[in-house]
Design brief:
By secondary structure, the protein is α/β, with parallel strands linked by helices. It has one domain: Spore Coat Polysaccharide Biosynthesis Protein SpsA, Chain A (Alpha-Beta Complex), CATH 3.90.550.10. The chain is built from 9 helices and 11 strands. A 7-stranded mixed sheet has the order 3-2-1-4-7-6-8, with helices on both faces. The two termini are 28 Å apart.
Amino acid sequence: MHLTVCNVSCRDSPYILFQDFSQRTLARDPSFRRLICNVTPGGGDAENLRALPNTKVIDLDVGSRTGSDAHGYALNSFLEHINTEYAIFADPDTAVVCRNWDEVCLSALKPQEMIAAIGTPYGPLAVNRFRHFPNVVFMAFHVDTLRKLKPNFLPEAMFWRKLKHHLEKFGVLRGRFDGDVGWQIPRLYEKAGIKGLCFEYKDFRDPTTLLFGPRDFGGVSGEVRGEEYQWQGTPIVSHQTRSRMFAYDGDPISSRWLDRVCAYAGISRTTAAGFARK
């Protein structure tokens, strides 16, 4: 197989177990490789992950880094371990929802035509982030192309991110750009004349969404839950979002997301529920 799926895990094993189940169930070729960078303090939470098929777990000490800093640091470590032609960065709380998703993604990549990435864009609420290029929530890419660009996925220093936020708040700065994880990647591709393709973003309140309905996440104010991404009019990936706030299948938000994803994709909800007890 010429594909590797890469996850960064910090106590995320139930989500990754479900992701692996959904991806292998729906893939044209379920023998793809999985690399997991485990940044859980003390190296915990890895036993179940190591039991996944065709999977390698890398225990990474991120020092005092937390949040986006730890995430970016872990993403930087992946390229030296990938030995396939193509790879995917996937947040643990994403799931594929269409059959042959691997073929769909890889057939869109044409590195000889300078199209070397495809994936999820930021939604409209991410007003200070790039939207014209895939982010690392779910990004399929040609490995050698990215490797040659010598990427750095670390976010901009939090001091500068907070300073720009305050300057914008008081009207001193306009058009603030928030340099979160992978913020430099679109610039590297553009400078090299290489394109990235984006899925179409939908959230659960969009009347054209096919996975969710406007009442699915009722009572949740000011936050987006249940993101749907379509490719050529067909849902391909869903992102629960904010997985740090919701235990896998342990609260209404996570459970409703799993209900809708399993129902649409035609995969076992009972099997999905079992990963919470692993």
